[in-house]
Amino acid sequence: MAHIENIETVIIDLAALDLMPESVARENAVLAVSIADEKLRVIIPTDDSQNDVIKKINILFPQIRLQIDTATRVEIEEAIEFHYPAKYSTIDNCKPEYQFKCPKRWYELTRTEQKYERHCSQCNRKVFLCRNIDEMNQHAAKGDCVAFLDDDSDKEVMGLLLFDNNS
């Protein structure tokens, strides 16, 4: 069991997030990191809940071996809050010559030093993960590419964003 000092440096595999139900992740503060060779790597809190969390995961996935790392509960909860909505986001507002929604997903983009910014190799632009409509509109006004999940409807915002400078 290794302790992760900075959870933001951990690369999260979308397949692992898909395997771990979001409700389980939130309820138990467990972040699925990767799945390979029937081994699931998870990060669990460094507190008294460790044994209970391990038991629950083993009940959920009896055929999968666990590789367990630890981090603070706060860091895990922040990572869950970031990664689960991000996995459903799409990228919109590509260059005008792209008149269709971006075929890429947030997790397919190259990480940058900024938590809410990635690089798209297809259009060679920065993409900003927006957490609310105001952020999305600010980036759209600048002509930035954005990835966004509408929390009100739990639906992805799709297509090229148009920004009315008069509003």
Characterise the protein shown here.
The chain has 167 residues and is an alpha/beta fold. The chain is 29% helix and 27% strand. A hairpin with a 4-residue loop joins strand 7 (117-120) and strand 8. The model is unreliable at 95-100 and 153-167 (pLDDT under 50).
Helix-strand makeup class: alpha/beta
What is the count of helical runs?
5
Distance between the termini: 53 Å
The helix/strand series, from N terminus to C terminus, equals EHHEEHEHEEEEHEE
Number of strands: 10
Tell me the radius of gyration: 18 Å
Could you name the key traits of this structure?
10 strands, 167 residues, alpha/beta, disordered C terminus, six-stranded mixed β-sheet
